[in-house]
Amino acid sequence: MYYDYYAGGAEDEHTLRENMQAFHRITIRPRVLVDVSQVDMSTTILGYPISAPILVAPTAAHKLAIPEGELATARAAAAAKTIMVLSYSSSCSIEEVASSCNAVRFFQLYIFKRRDISALLAQRAERHGYKAIVLTADTPRLGRREADIKNKMIYPPEKNLEGLISINIQCVDQGSKLETFANQMMDASLRWEDIRWLRSITSLPILIKGILTHEDATRAVEAGVDGIIVSNHGARQLDFSPAPVSVLEEVVDAVKGKVPVLLDGGVRRGTDVFKALALGAQAVLIGRPVLFGLAAKGEGGVRTVLEMLKNELETSMALAGCPCIKDITRSHVRTEHDRLPSML
């Protein structure tokens, strides 16, 4: 049941497959005879330095993978000198993760029907040293995850919601209790105007996660967000929504450099990271690979996953003739859209 929860997507899982396959259709155009004796992968996100443009995405319930849960993930991210985005639905509390190690981390937030709960979570994160809020905007209700329905998915207690709301949900059709809980909690009336409300309750920078179109990217900039994460929620929400990398350029073009754009979804290799950077992403976020590394070998497994991706990115940069991150440009990749004119 828990493997299906981590691995599964919405409905026919077309988008789940497409998230990775879309990367496969992008080729790299390497340059030769460039001095790559030293390759520097370091960069910054919102001014915070990281060793490579690879962050840990917000994913829920790490204790389903290993008893230490998010504490192990946080220590691994800190060891890799990168940023972890803690999920609101983590199985360790905001406070526990904050005290687990000294590192820069962000906090992912949903807006609930009870706004006071969302406000309290954001303020707890700010008080305990989290450096940004990542607002997940693509979940007015939970996508139809049929594996969870089949398994009658029972979600572990919401650690960050203890004492705030009852999580004893009655599921009348005996399907996914997670879906029932989420649909009772999430505020489906959330609108762009509510970004102002979020601004009023926290002084932290706000990144919005779940953007897939130039229209929404433009609205996000107009709403005053501090960053955009191109994401389809790991293909767990709307099946047949586009793979993030396939719409990355569309979002980057709409933003026009006003805020950083990051990408989440389908990244499995260092070459995928390279392709996303070439198409305009400032960094990528890694979800399922972190969870599977955690399940396999705990903190060491997460560190291995992050180091593997960093090593592969370093090799990709060297072989493509890019000694540092800023050297990776749009001319280093060819997409399906680039190939189309040559066929006409």
Automatic annotation (TrEMBL):
Reactions it catalyzes: 2-hydroxyoctanoate + O2 = 2-oxooctanoate + H2O2; 2-hydroxyhexanoate + O2 = 2-oxohexanoate + H2O2; a (2S)-2-hydroxycarboxylate + O2 = a 2-oxocarboxylate + H2O2
Cofactor: FMN
Residues binding FMN: 58-60, 87, 108, 136, 209, 231, 236, 264-268, 287-288
Positions annotated to bind glyoxylate: 5, 110, 145, 233
Membrane-spanning intervals of the chain: none
SMART domains: IMPDH
EC class name: oxidoreductase
UniProt keyword 4Fe-4S, yes or no: no
Record's GO cellular component terms: peroxisome
Domain of life where this protein originates: Eukaryota
Alphabetical UniProt keywords: Flavoprotein, FMN, Oxidoreductase, Peroxisome
GO biological process, one term: defense response to bacterium
Annotated protein name in UniProt: (S)-2-hydroxy-acid oxidase
The organism of origin for this protein: Cucurbita maxima (Pumpkin)
Name of the gene encoding the protein in the UniProt record: LOC111479944
